[in-house]
Amino acid sequence: xxxxxxxxxxxxxxxxxxxxxxxxxxxxxxxxxxxxxxxxxxxxxxxxxxxxxxxxxxxxxxxxxxxxxxxxxxxxxxxxxxxxxxxxxxxxxxxxxxxxxxxxxxxxxxxxxxxxxxxxxxxxxxxxxxxxxxxxxxxxxxxxxxxxxxxxxxxxxxxxxxxxxxxxxxxxxxxxxxxxxxxxx
Length: 185
What we know:
This protein is an alpha/beta fold. The chain contains six helices and eight strands; from the N terminus they run H-E-H-E-E-H-E-H-E-E-E-H-E-H. It has a single domain (28-178), classed as YbaK protein (Alpha-Beta Complex). It has helices at 17-26, 42-48, 82-89, 100-107, 156-165, 175-178, and strands at 32-35, 55-63, 69-75, 96-97, 127-132, 141-143, 150-154, 170-173. The chain is globular and about 50 Å long.
């Protein structure tokens, strides 16, 4: 090695789905995992996942004009207006979807497998997490365990414990209020 050369360690490899489930179990975080065909969209999920109980999620990996990244998790049928979401998130400038490269670099997952459970791979704490308040009132929240061929159900308390263990605070947003959604008449 040349004098003055600085070695920069490689970032840690993202956890595998099985390693994530082991992480949950080793820390006493109760979770139930179901296997199913790979799910790429909410529409596919509704058809192929079967009768998995709990609130099913849609996850948006977003970035603002200053390249701050956000993981926004909402109920699967909740409409989204990115302009209206800027304020509740504290985003600076416009919001757009983050690139697949940034998604993998920061959360260790590929498009189609975006999940709150990917926070385990964000060891630098670069991604801000926001969760719809309605999900946190559900009996169980269903998330992919880093792969789209399984679904893991956790209670809201278990999810909060997981996020705390990964060093992530989360912002609770009320999509019905923040997005101007009115209840069905």
